[in-house]
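Notebook, p. 212. Picked up where the previous page left off. The plan for this session was modest: take the two constructs that came back from the sequencing core last week, fold each one, and keep the raw output in the notebook itself so nobody has to go hunting through shared drives later. Recording the first one now, exactly as returned: residue sequence, then the structure token string.
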Amino acid sequence: MNKLKGLYLITDNKLTPDSSILYQVEEALKGGARIIQLRDKEKTDDELEKTAYLLKELISKYNALFIINDRVELAKKINADGVHIGDGDYTLKQTREILKDKIIGVSCYGDINKGLEAEKNGASYVAFGAVFSSMIKKNAKVIGVDILKEAKRKIKIPICAIGGINSDNISNIDSNVDMKAIISAIWGDEVKDKAKYLSSFC
């Protein structure tokens, strides 16, 4: 649990394609990323398995955490550090039965009560967003930064902020928020330098 802190980066099948994902993730880790989530909404588990194994091996060298989005069975198969689930995925109870003592993150969108329920039912951390308008999820409801402060007051497990966070607005998020998750604002060119800058606010 004490490792659930810092810059939390999420891959994207377009921004981090197979040809560059390992290079980009390593640059991010060199820059100070502490958690990497593999997120791919298109490939099958079998198609992702090799990449997941390689990422796990790489990320462990930097003593960082490797989380897989949605794919509970894949996370179990490759022994990832944990999984992140949202609405429509396995329930938290089902996920905990499969992954035992692994990290389980739960998307709570803008719902504090959902976060409190997840905490009660054994979540390792909860995520709130979209904090700002997001290029990845353009239809996501923007919840703003104040809800993060409320979440920190009411919820004891670590809190992750997500959605539209970039180098221009990350300083607007309360420093007490445990993790700040970023997708589009990190990948591409100068990943290491961007990660260093963003990590300074985490």
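Okay, moving on. Second construct, recorded in the same format:
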Amino acid sequence: MCSYCGCRAIGPIRDLTLEHVEIRNLMGEVRRAVERDDLDAAVEHLTALLPVLTAHDAVEELSIYRSMERVPEQSEKVGTLFDEHDDLVGILERAMRHIRRSGPESVDWPEVLDGFSMLWEHIDHEENGLFPAAAIALENEDWELAEEIRAAVADGRIRTRQY
């Protein structure tokens, strides 16, 4: 994580960055469980990751990403970030479907771990590119929207993806 621009002093970026730490830690727990062939623990950690990830993605997609789409230099990058969210959702939906139908042994764990590698890079692109750019480009109304979206997700007014 960067510490050079001060963007983490902005509440929504601070909150998203703190969630990135939690997401990375949970991805690491899943990876270590898979590597030691403890698939029950992998499922437990994956199940803990999903609500954090879905709430986090909702805040990004409904506020920061939407606001940054208005910035011409960032619109293509934002499109890529949306696509990466979609790609990871597909991987996690398949994994959870396999878990429910046939158990953790039927999950394509290498695909899940590859998805996590992509997510790790995705987070780096946000923290070292999009978030510093947002700190410069966005207005108070954009940050207020991000806080409103976070509150609406937290109290259930905005429903997040269910796996």
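Notes on construct two before I forget. The first helix runs from residue 11 to 35.
Flagging for discussion at group meeting.
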